[in-house]
Amino acid sequence: MVKLRPLLRGPEIIAVFAKHGCASYLQQLGLIKRSSKKTTKAINKSVAFTAALEELGPTFVKLGQFLSTRSEQLPAPLIHELKKLQKNVTPIAFSEIKPLINKSVGGDYMRLFSEIEPTPLGAASIGQVHGARLKDGTAVALKVRRPQIERQVRHDIETLTELARIAEKNSRYARELQVSALVRDFSRSLMTELDFKHEAQVMTTMRENNHHPQLYIPAVAVQHATSDLLIQERIEGEELSSETLSSLSTAEKEQLSTTICEALTMQLFEHGLFHADPHPGNFKLLANNVLGMLDFGNVGQLNERLNRLLMDLIIAASNRDAVSFSFAMMSLDASKTINRHAFEKDIERMMARYLQVDMSQLNYGLLIQDVLQIARSYTIEIPFEFLQIGQAVLKLQDTLTMLTPDLNMSLIIRKTIPIVVKQQFNPTKMTKRMKSNGHLLWQAARKLPVVINEVINQFQEGKPSVKMEMNMDDHLLQRVEKIAYMLIFGIALLAFSILTAGLFIGFTSAAGSIAFNNSIFQTMAITAMAIVVLFMTMLVWLIQRIRKK
Fold first, then answer.
1. 260 near 278, Cβ under 8 Å?
2. What is the DSSP letter of 92?
3. What Cα–Cα distance (Å) separates residue 452 from each residue in 234, 340, 447, 455, 458?
4. pLDDT reading at 495 higher than 90
5. Mean predicted confidence (pLDDT) in 238-267
6. DSSP string over 423-475
7. pTM metric for this prediction
8. Do 200 and 229 contact (CB within 8 A), yes or no?
9. pLDDT by residue (tens digit) across 270-292?
10. Where are the beta strands (DSSP E) in 40-135?
Protein backbone atom coordinates (compact mmCIF):
# COMPACT_ATOMS: atom_id res chain seq x y z
CA MET A 1 0.00 0.00 0.00
CA VAL A 2 2.88 2.37 0.79
CA LYS A 3 4.18 1.90 -2.77
CA LEU A 4 0.71 2.26 -4.29
CA ARG A 5 -0.21 5.55 -2.60
CA PRO A 6 2.20 7.74 -4.62
CA LEU A 7 1.03 5.99 -7.79
CA LEU A 8 -2.59 6.86 -6.97
CA ARG A 9 -2.14 10.37 -5.55
CA GLY A 10 0.78 11.50 -7.74
CA PRO A 11 -1.11 11.71 -11.05
CA GLU A 12 -3.94 13.57 -9.29
CA ILE A 13 -1.50 16.21 -7.98
CA ILE A 14 0.10 16.66 -11.40
CA ALA A 15 -3.33 16.88 -13.07
CA VAL A 16 -4.51 19.62 -10.67
CA PHE A 17 -1.42 21.75 -11.28
CA ALA A 18 -1.72 21.23 -15.04
CA LYS A 19 -5.41 22.16 -14.91
CA HIS A 20 -4.55 25.48 -13.29
CA GLY A 21 -1.97 26.26 -15.98
CA CYS A 22 1.17 25.33 -14.06
CA ALA A 23 2.53 22.88 -16.65
CA SER A 24 5.72 24.94 -17.05
CA TYR A 25 6.57 24.41 -13.36
CA LEU A 26 6.04 20.67 -13.77
CA GLN A 27 8.28 20.64 -16.85
CA GLN A 28 11.05 22.48 -14.99
CA LEU A 29 10.88 19.87 -12.26
CA GLY A 30 11.00 17.00 -14.74
CA LEU A 31 7.58 15.63 -13.72
CA ILE A 32 6.02 15.91 -17.18
CA LYS A 33 7.37 16.15 -20.70
CA ARG A 34 7.00 19.32 -22.74
CA SER A 35 3.36 19.67 -23.64
CA SER A 36 2.40 19.96 -27.32
CA LYS A 37 -0.79 21.83 -26.41
CA LYS A 38 -0.71 25.60 -26.78
CA THR A 39 -2.92 28.03 -25.00
CA THR A 40 -3.57 31.66 -25.73
CA LYS A 41 -5.14 32.30 -22.33
CA ALA A 42 -3.02 34.68 -20.27
CA ILE A 43 -2.73 33.55 -16.63
CA ASN A 44 -0.90 34.71 -13.56
CA LYS A 45 1.20 31.62 -12.79
CA SER A 46 1.75 32.61 -9.17
CA VAL A 47 -2.00 32.95 -8.57
CA ALA A 48 -2.62 29.69 -10.44
CA PHE A 49 0.00 27.84 -8.37
CA THR A 50 -1.60 29.06 -5.14
CA ALA A 51 -5.08 28.07 -6.35
CA ALA A 52 -3.80 24.55 -7.14
CA LEU A 53 -2.41 24.21 -3.61
CA GLU A 54 -5.75 25.24 -2.12
CA GLU A 55 -7.64 22.70 -4.24
CA LEU A 56 -5.29 19.87 -3.21
CA GLY A 57 -6.14 20.29 0.48
CA PRO A 58 -4.62 20.97 3.91
CA THR A 59 -1.20 19.37 3.33
CA PHE A 60 -0.61 21.53 0.27
CA VAL A 61 -1.90 24.68 1.97
CA LYS A 62 0.74 24.05 4.66
CA LEU A 63 3.29 23.40 1.92
CA GLY A 64 2.46 26.79 0.41
CA GLN A 65 2.89 28.47 3.81
CA PHE A 66 6.20 26.64 4.23
CA LEU A 67 7.40 27.71 0.76
CA SER A 68 6.44 31.34 1.45
CA THR A 69 9.50 31.55 3.73
CA ARG A 70 11.89 30.26 1.03
CA SER A 71 12.29 33.51 -0.86
CA GLU A 72 15.96 32.75 -1.54
CA GLN A 73 14.82 29.86 -3.75
CA LEU A 74 11.53 31.04 -5.28
CA PRO A 75 10.55 34.14 -7.32
CA ALA A 76 9.14 37.17 -5.47
CA PRO A 77 5.69 37.18 -7.20
CA LEU A 78 5.12 33.56 -6.15
CA ILE A 79 6.20 34.30 -2.55
CA HIS A 80 3.75 37.23 -2.48
CA GLU A 81 0.84 34.96 -3.44
CA LEU A 82 1.89 32.12 -1.12
CA LYS A 83 1.82 34.48 1.86
CA LYS A 84 -1.92 34.89 1.32
CA LEU A 85 -2.34 31.27 2.37
CA GLN A 86 -1.72 32.36 5.97
CA LYS A 87 -5.34 33.50 6.16
CA ASN A 88 -8.09 31.45 7.82
CA VAL A 89 -9.71 28.58 5.93
CA THR A 90 -13.32 27.39 5.90
CA PRO A 91 -14.16 25.72 9.26
CA ILE A 92 -15.80 22.32 9.56
CA ALA A 93 -19.07 21.73 11.43
CA PHE A 94 -18.95 21.19 15.20
CA SER A 95 -20.80 17.91 14.77
CA GLU A 96 -17.76 16.50 12.92
CA ILE A 97 -15.25 17.32 15.63
CA LYS A 98 -17.47 16.52 18.63
CA PRO A 99 -16.53 12.79 18.54
CA LEU A 100 -12.83 13.76 18.66
CA ILE A 101 -13.39 15.88 21.77
CA ASN A 102 -15.31 13.06 23.49
CA LYS A 103 -12.59 10.56 22.63
CA SER A 104 -9.83 12.88 23.90
CA VAL A 105 -11.48 13.52 27.29
CA GLY A 106 -12.48 9.86 27.72
CA GLY A 107 -16.24 10.13 27.42
CA ASP A 108 -18.93 12.81 27.23
CA TYR A 109 -17.18 16.18 27.10
CA MET A 110 -19.89 17.65 29.36
CA ARG A 111 -18.17 15.91 32.28
CA LEU A 112 -15.28 18.38 31.90
CA PHE A 113 -16.90 21.42 30.25
CA SER A 114 -20.03 23.35 31.14
CA GLU A 115 -20.27 24.57 27.54
CA ILE A 116 -18.44 24.63 24.21
CA GLU A 117 -19.17 27.31 21.62
CA PRO A 118 -20.16 25.54 18.36
CA THR A 119 -18.94 28.44 16.19
CA PRO A 120 -15.12 28.40 16.05
CA LEU A 121 -13.04 31.43 17.01
CA GLY A 122 -10.74 30.64 14.11
CA ALA A 123 -9.93 27.85 11.66
CA ALA A 124 -6.74 26.74 9.96
CA SER A 125 -5.68 23.94 7.65
CA ILE A 126 -4.84 21.52 10.48
CA GLY A 127 -7.40 22.39 13.14
CA GLN A 128 -9.74 25.01 14.58
CA VAL A 129 -10.25 26.76 17.90
CA HIS A 130 -13.49 26.84 19.93
CA GLY A 131 -14.27 28.85 23.04
CA ALA A 132 -15.39 26.83 26.10
CA ARG A 133 -15.82 26.92 29.87
CA LEU A 134 -14.70 24.38 32.41
CA LYS A 135 -17.04 23.18 35.17
CA ASP A 136 -15.53 25.73 37.56
CA GLY A 137 -16.32 28.56 35.13
CA THR A 138 -12.77 29.07 33.82
CA ALA A 139 -12.73 30.35 30.22
CA VAL A 140 -10.58 28.18 27.96
CA ALA A 141 -9.83 27.74 24.27
CA LEU A 142 -9.99 24.29 22.66
CA LYS A 143 -7.69 23.59 19.75
CA VAL A 144 -9.14 20.57 17.92
CA ARG A 145 -7.47 18.71 15.07
CA ARG A 146 -9.44 18.07 11.88
CA PRO A 147 -10.72 14.47 11.57
CA GLN A 148 -8.43 12.08 9.63
CA ILE A 149 -5.93 14.91 9.02
CA GLU A 150 -2.89 12.91 10.20
CA ARG A 151 -3.65 10.01 7.87
CA GLN A 152 -4.17 12.37 4.94
CA VAL A 153 -0.95 14.27 5.67
CA ARG A 154 1.11 11.07 5.91
CA HIS A 155 -0.22 9.85 2.56
CA ASP A 156 0.51 13.21 0.92
CA ILE A 157 4.03 13.32 2.37
CA GLU A 158 4.76 9.85 0.95
CA THR A 159 3.59 11.06 -2.45
CA LEU A 160 5.61 14.29 -2.29
CA THR A 161 8.71 12.34 -1.29
CA GLU A 162 8.35 10.07 -4.31
CA LEU A 163 7.67 13.00 -6.67
CA ALA A 164 10.77 14.78 -5.31
CA ARG A 165 12.87 11.68 -5.99
CA ILE A 166 11.60 11.51 -9.57
CA ALA A 167 12.15 15.25 -10.05
CA GLU A 168 15.78 15.12 -8.92
CA LYS A 169 16.38 12.14 -11.16
CA ASN A 170 14.99 13.91 -14.24
CA SER A 171 15.78 17.59 -13.67
CA ARG A 172 18.96 19.52 -12.96
CA TYR A 173 16.81 22.43 -11.75
CA ALA A 174 15.17 20.13 -9.16
CA ARG A 175 18.60 19.01 -7.97
CA GLU A 176 19.76 22.62 -7.62
CA LEU A 177 16.56 23.40 -5.75
CA GLN A 178 17.22 20.38 -3.49
CA VAL A 179 13.55 19.41 -3.56
CA SER A 180 14.09 16.17 -1.63
CA ALA A 181 15.69 18.07 1.25
CA LEU A 182 12.91 20.65 1.03
CA VAL A 183 10.22 17.96 1.30
CA ARG A 184 12.11 16.35 4.18
CA ASP A 185 12.22 19.66 6.10
CA PHE A 186 8.56 20.29 5.36
CA SER A 187 7.61 16.81 6.54
CA ARG A 188 9.53 17.22 9.79
CA SER A 189 7.91 20.58 10.49
CA LEU A 190 4.38 19.48 9.64
CA MET A 191 4.42 16.17 11.54
CA THR A 192 5.55 18.00 14.69
CA GLU A 193 2.83 20.61 14.23
CA LEU A 194 0.20 17.84 13.98
CA ASP A 195 0.89 16.58 17.51
CA PHE A 196 -1.08 18.79 19.92
CA LYS A 197 0.24 16.86 22.94
CA HIS A 198 3.79 17.82 21.98
CA GLU A 199 2.64 21.42 21.50
CA ALA A 200 1.16 21.44 25.02
CA GLN A 201 4.44 20.23 26.53
CA VAL A 202 6.47 22.79 24.59
CA MET A 203 4.03 25.56 25.52
CA THR A 204 4.34 24.69 29.22
CA THR A 205 8.14 24.75 29.04
CA MET A 206 8.20 28.09 27.24
CA ARG A 207 5.74 29.56 29.75
CA GLU A 208 7.99 28.47 32.63
CA ASN A 209 11.06 29.90 30.87
CA ASN A 210 9.41 33.22 29.97
CA HIS A 211 10.76 36.07 32.09
CA HIS A 212 9.91 39.01 29.85
CA PRO A 213 7.49 41.31 31.72
CA GLN A 214 5.73 42.45 28.52
CA LEU A 215 5.16 38.98 27.03
CA TYR A 216 2.43 36.58 28.20
CA ILE A 217 2.17 32.89 27.32
CA PRO A 218 -1.19 31.22 28.19
CA ALA A 219 -1.37 28.31 30.61
CA VAL A 220 -2.21 24.89 29.17
CA ALA A 221 -3.83 21.77 30.65
CA VAL A 222 -1.07 19.25 29.87
CA GLN A 223 -2.87 16.45 31.73
CA HIS A 224 -5.81 16.62 29.27
CA ALA A 225 -3.74 17.14 26.11
CA THR A 226 -3.87 14.53 23.34
CA SER A 227 -2.73 14.46 19.73
CA ASP A 228 -6.21 15.68 18.74
CA LEU A 229 -7.00 18.18 21.52
CA LEU A 230 -5.27 21.00 23.35
CA ILE A 231 -6.96 22.95 26.19
CA GLN A 232 -5.39 26.29 26.99
CA GLU A 233 -6.21 29.44 28.92
CA ARG A 234 -8.36 31.82 26.90
CA ILE A 235 -6.84 35.28 26.83
CA GLU A 236 -8.97 38.25 25.92
CA GLY A 237 -7.18 40.75 23.75
CA GLU A 238 -7.17 42.54 20.42
CA GLU A 239 -5.74 41.25 17.16
CA LEU A 240 -2.67 43.05 15.79
CA SER A 241 -4.70 44.65 12.99
CA SER A 242 -4.49 48.05 11.34
CA GLU A 243 -7.55 49.17 13.32
CA THR A 244 -5.97 48.18 16.65
CA LEU A 245 -2.62 49.79 15.86
CA SER A 246 -4.23 53.05 14.70
CA SER A 247 -5.24 53.76 18.31
CA LEU A 248 -1.69 53.38 19.64
CA SER A 249 1.00 56.04 19.84
CA THR A 250 4.32 55.70 18.00
CA ALA A 251 6.10 55.06 21.31
CA GLU A 252 3.65 52.25 22.19
CA LYS A 253 4.11 50.57 18.81
CA GLU A 254 7.89 50.82 19.12
CA GLN A 255 7.63 49.22 22.55
CA LEU A 256 5.67 46.31 21.05
CA SER A 257 8.36 45.81 18.39
CA THR A 258 11.06 45.85 21.05
CA THR A 259 9.12 43.37 23.19
CA ILE A 260 8.82 40.86 20.33
CA CYS A 261 12.52 41.13 19.42
CA GLU A 262 13.73 40.89 23.01
CA ALA A 263 11.42 37.96 23.81
CA LEU A 264 12.51 35.94 20.76
CA THR A 265 16.18 36.68 21.42
CA MET A 266 15.79 35.51 25.03
CA GLN A 267 14.02 32.34 23.84
CA LEU A 268 16.85 31.61 21.41
CA PHE A 269 19.86 32.24 23.60
CA GLU A 270 18.69 31.59 27.15
CA HIS A 271 16.85 28.31 26.60
CA GLY A 272 17.28 27.40 22.92
CA LEU A 273 13.50 26.94 22.54
CA PHE A 274 11.90 29.56 20.29
CA HIS A 275 8.64 30.44 18.54
CA ALA A 276 9.34 29.92 14.82
CA ASP A 277 6.13 31.51 13.50
CA PRO A 278 5.96 35.09 14.87
CA HIS A 279 3.57 36.53 12.27
CA PRO A 280 0.99 39.14 13.43
CA GLY A 281 -1.84 36.58 13.72
CA ASN A 282 0.03 34.77 16.51
CA PHE A 283 -0.01 37.76 18.87
CA LYS A 284 -2.76 39.46 20.87
CA LEU A 285 -2.57 42.89 22.45
CA LEU A 286 -3.51 42.65 26.14
CA ALA A 287 -3.88 45.31 28.83
CA ASN A 288 -0.91 47.60 29.65
CA ASN A 289 0.65 46.99 26.22
CA VAL A 290 1.45 43.36 27.08
CA LEU A 291 1.63 40.95 24.15
CA GLY A 292 0.07 37.49 24.33
CA MET A 293 1.87 34.86 22.24
CA LEU A 294 -0.24 32.13 20.59
CA ASP A 295 0.04 28.96 18.47
CA PHE A 296 3.11 26.96 19.47
CA GLY A 297 2.78 24.31 16.78
CA ASN A 298 5.87 25.59 14.95
CA VAL A 299 8.64 25.79 17.55
CA GLY A 300 12.37 25.35 17.05
CA GLN A 301 14.98 24.03 19.46
CA LEU A 302 18.74 24.56 19.42
CA ASN A 303 21.19 22.25 21.15
CA GLU A 304 24.29 23.63 22.87
CA ARG A 305 26.49 23.27 19.77
CA LEU A 306 24.10 25.05 17.42
CA ASN A 307 23.47 27.74 20.03
CA ARG A 308 27.20 28.46 20.22
CA LEU A 309 27.53 28.51 16.44
CA LEU A 310 24.62 30.95 16.16
CA MET A 311 26.30 33.23 18.71
CA ASP A 312 29.55 33.00 16.74
CA LEU A 313 27.74 33.95 13.52
CA ILE A 314 26.00 36.95 15.10
CA ILE A 315 29.16 38.25 16.80
CA ALA A 316 31.20 37.77 13.59
CA ALA A 317 28.53 39.59 11.56
CA SER A 318 28.37 42.47 14.05
CA ASN A 319 32.20 42.76 13.87
CA ARG A 320 32.12 42.45 10.05
CA ASP A 321 34.59 39.58 10.38
CA ALA A 322 34.20 37.54 7.18
CA VAL A 323 36.86 34.99 8.20
CA SER A 324 35.19 34.12 11.52
CA PHE A 325 31.77 34.14 9.88
CA SER A 326 32.97 31.75 7.15
CA PHE A 327 34.57 29.43 9.71
CA ALA A 328 31.33 29.27 11.71
CA MET A 329 29.32 28.60 8.53
CA MET A 330 31.64 25.76 7.51
CA SER A 331 31.32 24.30 11.03
CA LEU A 332 27.60 23.82 10.40
CA ASP A 333 28.48 21.01 7.98
CA ALA A 334 31.94 19.76 8.89
CA SER A 335 31.65 16.78 6.53
CA LYS A 336 31.99 19.02 3.45
CA THR A 337 35.37 19.92 1.92
CA ILE A 338 35.03 23.21 0.06
CA ASN A 339 37.20 25.95 -1.43
CA ARG A 340 37.70 27.96 1.75
CA HIS A 341 39.26 31.00 0.11
CA ALA A 342 36.48 31.31 -2.49
CA PHE A 343 33.87 30.87 0.22
CA GLU A 344 35.44 33.62 2.34
CA LYS A 345 35.53 35.95 -0.68
CA ASP A 346 31.82 35.38 -1.33
CA ILE A 347 31.03 36.08 2.34
CA GLU A 348 33.16 39.26 2.22
CA ARG A 349 31.29 40.47 -0.86
CA MET A 350 27.96 39.71 0.81
CA MET A 351 28.97 41.60 3.95
CA ALA A 352 30.19 44.57 1.93
CA ARG A 353 26.82 44.70 0.20
CA TYR A 354 24.80 44.74 3.43
CA LEU A 355 26.93 45.88 6.33
CA GLN A 356 27.84 49.21 4.77
CA VAL A 357 24.15 50.07 4.71
CA ASP A 358 22.72 52.07 7.60
CA MET A 359 21.15 49.76 10.19
CA SER A 360 17.80 51.47 9.76
CA GLN A 361 17.77 50.54 6.06
CA LEU A 362 19.09 46.99 6.39
CA ASN A 363 16.80 44.23 5.13
CA TYR A 364 17.56 41.32 7.45
CA GLY A 365 15.30 38.98 5.53
CA LEU A 366 17.31 39.45 2.33
CA LEU A 367 20.57 39.16 4.30
CA ILE A 368 19.58 35.75 5.64
CA GLN A 369 18.39 34.64 2.21
CA ASP A 370 21.75 35.57 0.65
CA VAL A 371 23.67 33.72 3.35
CA LEU A 372 21.58 30.59 2.75
CA GLN A 373 22.03 30.96 -1.01
CA ILE A 374 25.83 31.12 -0.67
CA ALA A 375 25.79 28.07 1.62
CA ARG A 376 23.71 26.12 -0.90
CA SER A 377 26.02 27.08 -3.77
CA TYR A 378 28.84 25.37 -1.84
CA THR A 379 26.57 22.42 -0.96
CA ILE A 380 26.81 23.23 2.75
CA GLU A 381 23.82 21.57 4.36
CA ILE A 382 22.14 24.02 6.71
CA PRO A 383 20.64 22.40 9.86
CA PHE A 384 16.85 22.40 9.93
CA GLU A 385 16.91 24.45 13.13
CA PHE A 386 18.79 27.26 11.37
CA LEU A 387 16.25 27.20 8.54
CA GLN A 388 13.56 27.64 11.20
CA ILE A 389 15.43 30.67 12.53
CA GLY A 390 15.55 32.10 9.01
CA GLN A 391 11.79 31.57 8.64
CA ALA A 392 11.19 33.19 12.03
CA VAL A 393 13.25 36.25 11.10
CA LEU A 394 11.36 36.69 7.82
CA LYS A 395 8.00 36.53 9.60
CA LEU A 396 9.33 38.74 12.38
CA GLN A 397 10.31 41.37 9.84
CA ASP A 398 6.77 41.33 8.40
CA THR A 399 5.37 41.83 11.92
CA LEU A 400 7.76 44.69 12.70
CA THR A 401 7.00 46.35 9.37
CA MET A 402 3.30 46.28 10.20
CA LEU A 403 3.88 47.64 13.71
CA THR A 404 6.43 50.33 12.95
CA PRO A 405 7.29 50.74 9.24
CA ASP A 406 9.79 53.54 9.98
CA LEU A 407 11.41 51.92 13.01
CA ASN A 408 15.18 52.37 13.15
CA MET A 409 16.49 48.81 13.46
CA SER A 410 19.57 50.02 15.33
CA LEU A 411 17.29 50.62 18.34
CA ILE A 412 16.26 46.97 18.30
CA ILE A 413 19.81 45.76 17.81
CA ARG A 414 21.14 47.83 20.72
CA LYS A 415 18.64 46.10 22.99
CA THR A 416 19.00 42.52 21.69
CA ILE A 417 22.76 42.20 21.09
CA PRO A 418 23.55 42.59 24.84
CA ILE A 419 21.32 39.55 25.46
CA VAL A 420 23.48 37.56 23.01
CA VAL A 421 26.73 38.75 24.61
CA LYS A 422 25.39 38.05 28.10
CA GLN A 423 24.57 34.48 27.17
CA GLN A 424 28.03 34.03 25.61
CA PHE A 425 29.49 34.49 29.11
CA ASN A 426 26.67 32.92 31.10
CA PRO A 427 28.36 31.25 34.15
CA THR A 428 25.98 28.28 34.11
CA LYS A 429 26.61 27.59 30.43
CA MET A 430 30.36 28.12 30.78
CA THR A 431 30.45 25.64 33.68
CA LYS A 432 28.45 23.13 31.66
CA ARG A 433 30.81 23.63 28.72
CA MET A 434 33.88 23.09 30.92
CA LYS A 435 32.36 19.89 32.36
CA SER A 436 31.62 18.64 28.85
CA ASN A 437 35.15 19.44 27.64
CA GLY A 438 36.61 17.86 30.77
CA HIS A 439 34.62 14.68 30.14
CA LEU A 440 35.90 14.58 26.54
CA LEU A 441 39.49 15.00 27.76
CA TRP A 442 38.97 12.20 30.29
CA GLN A 443 37.63 9.92 27.56
CA ALA A 444 40.63 10.75 25.37
CA ALA A 445 43.00 10.09 28.28
CA ARG A 446 41.43 6.67 28.87
CA LYS A 447 41.94 5.76 25.22
CA LEU A 448 45.54 6.99 25.12
CA PRO A 449 47.19 3.81 26.58
CA VAL A 450 45.36 1.68 24.00
CA VAL A 451 46.52 3.94 21.16
CA ILE A 452 50.13 3.92 22.44
CA ASN A 453 50.03 0.13 22.70
CA GLU A 454 48.80 -0.16 19.09
CA VAL A 455 51.60 2.14 17.86
CA ILE A 456 54.22 0.11 19.75
CA ASN A 457 52.85 -3.13 18.26
CA GLN A 458 53.09 -1.60 14.77
CA PHE A 459 56.74 -0.68 15.34
CA GLN A 460 57.48 -4.15 16.70
CA GLU A 461 55.97 -5.67 13.58
CA GLY A 462 57.97 -3.29 11.42
CA LYS A 463 54.88 -1.72 9.88
CA PRO A 464 54.41 1.73 11.42
CA SER A 465 51.69 3.75 9.71
CA VAL A 466 51.41 7.53 9.98
CA LYS A 467 48.80 9.48 8.01
CA MET A 468 48.74 13.28 8.17
CA GLU A 469 47.11 15.94 6.04
CA MET A 470 47.95 19.62 6.44
CA ASN A 471 46.11 22.33 4.52
CA MET A 472 47.45 25.43 6.27
CA ASP A 473 49.07 28.29 4.41
CA ASP A 474 52.19 30.12 5.70
CA HIS A 475 50.15 33.01 7.07
CA LEU A 476 47.97 30.69 9.13
CA LEU A 477 51.03 28.80 10.41
CA GLN A 478 52.59 32.07 11.54
CA ARG A 479 49.39 32.98 13.38
CA VAL A 480 49.30 29.56 15.08
CA GLU A 481 52.97 29.89 16.08
CA LYS A 482 52.35 33.38 17.45
CA ILE A 483 49.42 32.13 19.48
CA ALA A 484 51.60 29.31 20.85
CA TYR A 485 54.32 31.76 21.91
CA MET A 486 51.72 34.02 23.52
CA LEU A 487 50.30 31.06 25.41
CA ILE A 488 53.76 30.09 26.69
CA PHE A 489 54.36 33.74 27.57
CA GLY A 490 51.13 33.85 29.57
CA ILE A 491 51.97 30.66 31.48
CA ALA A 492 55.50 31.86 32.18
CA LEU A 493 54.24 35.24 33.36
CA LEU A 494 51.74 33.55 35.69
CA ALA A 495 54.48 31.29 37.11
CA PHE A 496 56.79 34.29 37.53
CA SER A 497 54.06 36.23 39.37
CA ILE A 498 53.39 33.31 41.74
CA LEU A 499 57.12 32.83 42.39
CA THR A 500 57.72 36.54 43.03
CA ALA A 501 54.73 36.74 45.34
CA GLY A 502 55.97 33.68 47.26
CA LEU A 503 59.46 35.12 47.64
CA PHE A 504 58.10 38.47 48.78
CA ILE A 505 55.86 36.87 51.39
CA GLY A 506 58.64 34.54 52.51
CA PHE A 507 61.23 37.29 52.93
CA THR A 508 58.73 39.57 54.66
CA SER A 509 57.70 36.95 57.19
CA ALA A 510 61.27 35.77 57.76
CA ALA A 511 62.92 39.19 58.09
CA GLY A 512 64.32 39.74 61.56
CA SER A 513 64.03 36.10 62.58
CA ILE A 514 66.90 33.81 63.52
CA ALA A 515 66.32 31.71 60.40
CA PHE A 516 66.88 34.74 58.22
CA ASN A 517 70.60 34.76 59.14
CA ASN A 518 70.94 31.00 58.67
CA SER A 519 73.39 30.02 55.86
CA ILE A 520 70.94 27.42 54.45
CA PHE A 521 68.21 30.02 54.22
CA GLN A 522 70.60 32.42 52.51
CA THR A 523 71.57 29.72 49.99
CA MET A 524 67.90 29.08 49.23
CA ALA A 525 67.31 32.82 48.81
CA ILE A 526 70.20 33.10 46.32
CA THR A 527 68.82 30.08 44.39
CA ALA A 528 65.36 31.65 44.30
CA MET A 529 66.77 34.91 43.00
CA ALA A 530 68.65 33.00 40.28
CA ILE A 531 65.37 31.37 39.23
CA VAL A 532 63.75 34.80 39.07
CA VAL A 533 66.55 36.05 36.80
CA LEU A 534 66.15 32.97 34.61
CA PHE A 535 62.40 33.59 34.33
CA MET A 536 62.98 37.23 33.43
CA THR A 537 65.47 36.23 30.73
CA MET A 538 62.98 33.75 29.26
CA LEU A 539 60.20 36.39 29.29
CA VAL A 540 62.40 38.86 27.41
CA TRP A 541 63.21 36.17 24.81
CA LEU A 542 59.52 35.32 24.39
CA ILE A 543 58.58 38.98 23.93
CA GLN A 544 61.23 39.31 21.19
CA ARG A 545 59.96 36.15 19.43
CA ILE A 546 56.34 37.38 19.53
CA ARG A 547 57.33 40.75 18.08
CA LYS A 548 59.20 39.07 15.22
CA LYS A 549 56.10 37.01 14.39
1. yes
2. P
3. 65, 34, 9, 5, 10
4. no
5. 89
6. HHT-HHHHHHHHHHHHHHHHHHHHHHHHHHHHHHHHHHTT-----------HH
7. 0.69
8. no
9. 888 999 989 888 999 999 999 99
10. 113-116, 122-123, 127-134
